[in-house]
Design a protein that fits this description.
Helices cover about 55% and strands about 10% of the residues. By secondary structure, the protein is α/β, with parallel strands linked by helices. It has a 5-stranded parallel sheet, with helices on both faces. The longest helix has 28 residues.
Length: about 200
Amino acid sequence: MSTLIIGLTGSIASGKSTVASMFSKFDIPVIDADDISRLVVEPGEQAYSEIIDTFGQGILLPDKAIDRKKLGGIIFANEEKRKQLNQIVHPAVRQKMLEERDHYVQKKHRCVVLDIPLLFESRLMHFVDTTMVVYVKENVQLTRLMNRNGYTEEEALQRIQSQMPMEEKKELAQVVLDNNGTIEETYHQLKAYLQSKKII
């Protein structure tokens, strides 16, 4: 039986991380793009050396780790610098994700999840067999984000609107998990999907 590769995505406060942790209950490995993006910039990694070459020693902490705050300050103020950083980090993240994906495929896992926040924006659909979005309505997303992060409505809206709209992701995805209700309801949708694919 071939391995089913699921690309999992969502938006801020949609519940994607919650769903990612549900997969582990079914012993399905989840490869997290955010985790990998932290790993590839650690000392000793190729991307780390390239970042130092590009941005200089000034962005390092005393322990030689990259000062994320300092680097963030540079790239958010300068579109060109942000592109430079992305050109270093993104290929390294993709390569590592594919290595991990292929490792699980070789080990004959029934299913592997690639948790990629910008799956559609970065056009990485060809990395997976099927795309799954954790969907919430914008008003639910707004309330959850305000409650979770203590944002004002304006701050929360700003963050939501900086991303691809949920409705658009819902249209693009092959599988939609409706997370407007309870965690249990979402869990049952996921379980039903995995059963329909004979994964569990």
